[in-house]
Specification:
Number of strands: 12
Low-confidence stretches: 1-12
Oligomer: single chain
Structural class: alpha+beta
Shape: elongated
Keywords: Membrane, Transmembrane, Transmembrane helix
Strand content: 5-15%
Largest sheet: 5 strands, antiparallel
Order of helices and strands: HEEHHEHEEHEEHHEHEEHHHHHHHEE
InterPro entries: Spore_Ger (IPR004995), UPF0353/GerABKA_families (IPR050768)
Protein name: Spore germination protein
Mean pLDDT: 84
Distance between the termini: 56 Å
Pfam family, one: GerA
Family: Belongs to the GerABKA family.
Length: 515
């Protein structure tokens, strides 16, 4: 069933007229003199006594499908004798519905709103003189990008496919992985101007009905001119506006989306973008890579390394500032003397020094993203090396600061989900300011504030820090470490509250007939 947002003026929709020329004039008047609008008038029936027209948008349709749609009908229409079922518009309509079996789907429409939506979506509309209805044939066939290897969430082991900008291609990639009749999909149109197709997919019987209801309600509350990317949807339906942390998970990998569906999550797929949204999401999910589940469970211990990288990316510059400014007694004497020697002649305090290098690295990172793909990474790396070396020789920064900022920048790329690296970059500057003002005490206060904020967040009703807070012992099998698959017998408790058992395999052991 489609949960289509109802137009406020739906009861006042203008219906299709019974005269063909009036309908054609209405189409031309509304859509203007668009050169890609094709209106082909033709005559059918015995001796060509019946006037008809087909309407479609060039570039959005598959012309072969239109040919297969009309050719059998035109051939058979000439063969039928008078009085044998082609004398009235209603008979022609029924005959056409019976003959056009070569297209994906056929439906009748009665109003111009549906006609315009169909034509601008890539369908073909058939109008007949004397009939106040039309036939819509599914003939969509525009040029699109084929399925290619993912460019953001790369893996060493696992599928290489990524989503594309076409909605039906993306839904088919998921259905090819989940061949369950309970995988349901609902489609809505969002945007008064763009009327973008937005689909939600879930597995009936596994999904949390309260979460599903909340997703429907939030999507139906959106009232905007246009949706061009899933980020527009994310910003409209997210739980918290004033938080740097993402409360929705976005991915371009079909296997990640399929795994989320099997855990009880809801996938939101937007036509025109390869990024799919998954809800609800928890904080630990951003440290989980898809290949954690494609290798042995001991490989999942790499998540602990990602947590270390998370802490380094967040705390390394601020800790350096705090130690060198307030807490020199924490350093070994030899290291303290070495750092003091390096800082001799540097005109700025450690905070200004760190801010200068951090801003420089952020500018280089942004430049590398915006520049052409072939030279962007080279510019980022070479630029960082050249500027860092020049800054040290000019006496603006110390070599130790270059090392700290470099480790911070590298650690920022360890996260499997790039959405988590962005808030860390912002919070890092706040902690650097706290360290410059209050030392380690300022860092501690900042960390407590961040943790309390994380505990206050929810994603579609699910606590953001679960299963840590609230603590759930059974869900700890897939957080900082991954237990073997045969040990993870239940789905996350707060994600799916029914059909919790997902695996009943016995513990691996040698067979009775072993050699």
């Amino acid at each position: 069933m489609d949960y289509i947002k109802k137009n406020k003026n739906e009861s006042q929709k203008e219906t299709i007229a019974i005269h063909l020329h009036e309908n054609i004039e209405k189409v031309k008047q509304t859509l203007g003199n668009s050169t890609d609008l094709i209106i082909s008038e033709l005559r059918i029936g015995e001796n060509g006594t019946k006037k008809a027209a087909i309407i479609y948008t060039d570039g959005l349709v598959d012309t072969k499908t239109i040919h297969n749609f009309m050719e059998p009908f035109m051939i058979r229409a000439r063969e039928i004798e008078p009085g044998k079922g082609m004398d009235t518009p209603q008979e022609i309509l029924r005959f056409m519905e019976d003959m056009t079996v070569t297209v994906g789907s056929i439906k009748e429409i009665t109003d111009f709103s549906s006609l315009f939506k169909s034509v601008l979506s890539g369908d073909t509309v058939f109008l007949l003189d004397g009939l106040d209805r039309g036939i819509v044939a599914s003939t969509r066939g525009w040029e699109d990008r084929g399925v290619s290897e993912t460019s953001i969430e790369s893996v060493v082991r696992g599928p290489r496919e990524s989503f594309t900008e076409t909605l039906r291609t993306n839904t088919s990639l998921i259905r090819r992985r989940i061949k369950d009749p309970h995988l349901w999909m609902e489609t809505i149109q969002i945007g008064q101007v763009t009327q973008t197709d937005v689909s939600i997919m879930y597995i009936k019987g596994i999904v949390n009905d309260k979460v599903l209801k909340e997703v429907r309600e939030r999507l139906n509350r959106i009232n905007i001119d246009g949706i061009l990317e899933s980020g527009n949807i994310e910003e409209m339906i997210q739980d918290e506006t004033f938080t740097p942390f993402p409360t929705m998970y976005n991915t371009e990998r079909p296997d990640v989306a399929s795994a989320g569906l099997m855990e009880g999550r809801v996938a939101i797929i937007v036509d025109g973008t390869p990024i799919v949204l998954l809800v609800p999401v928890v904080f630990t999910q951003f440290f989980q890579a898809s290949e954690d589940y494609y290798n042995r469970s001991d490989f999942g211990a790499m998540r602990a390394l990602r947590v270390v990288a998370f802490l380094l990316s967040l705390l390394a510059p601020s800790f350096y500032i705090a130690v060198t400014t307030f807490h020199q007694e924490m350093l070994p004497t030899s290291l303290l003397i070495n750092l003091a020697t390096q800082r001799e002649g540097v005109p700025f305090p450690a905070f200004i020094e760190a801010m200068f290098m951090e801003f420089t690295f952020e500018i280089l990172r942004e430049a590398g993203i915006r520049m052409p793909r072939m030279i962007g990474p080279a510019i980022s790396i070479v630029g960082a090396l050249v500027i860092g070396e020049a800054a040290v020789q000019a006496g603006l920064v110390t070599p130790a600061m270059i090392i700290v900022v470099s480790i911070t920048a590298i650690s920022n790329f360890v996260f499997p989900a790039i959405a988590m690296s962005i808030p860390i970059r912002f919070l890092r500057f706040g902690l650097m300011g706290a360290a410059a003002a209050y030392g380690i005490y300022g860092i501690f206060i900042g960390l407590v504030a961040i943790y309390l904020h994380l505990c206050s967040l929810r994603s579609f009703g699910v606590p953001y820090m679960s299963p840590m807070a609230p603590f759930n012992l059974s869900d700890q099998k897939d957080t900082l470490f991954r237990f073997p698959l045969w040990a993870m017998r239940t789905r996350p408790r707060l994600i799916s509250q029914k059909n919790k058992v997902r695996e009943q395999t016995q513990n691996p052991e040698p067979g009775e007939n072993r050699p």
